[in-house]
Amino acid sequence: MVAVPFGAVLAVLILLVAPIEAGAQNLLELARYRHQNPDSTLEDYRSKLNTLVSVGWRTDPLAPPKLIVASELASGVAWDRQAGLQVTMQGQRYVTSFGRDVEAGLDFSEPWFVPLAPGDSLRVLGGIEIPNRAAIHPFAEGAEDYYEYELADTLTLLTPARNVDLVEIKVTPIRGDEALVVGSVWVDAATGDVGAMQIRFVGKPLWDDDPDDAEWANRILSVSATLQQGLWETRYWLPHKQELELMVKVPFIGNFAIPIIFRSDFGYYDVNTGEAIAWLSPQSLRTSDDPNFDYGEGATLAITVGGEREIDTDTVRYGEHFPEREQLQVRAGPAHGGWEIVRPPDDTLLAYDEWDRPLEAPSELTLPSSEELERRAQELAPDIVGRKMFFVQYDRITDLIRYNRVEALALGLDVRYDIPRR
Question: Quick check: 73 and 91 in contact, CB under 8 A?
Answer without folding.
Answer: yes
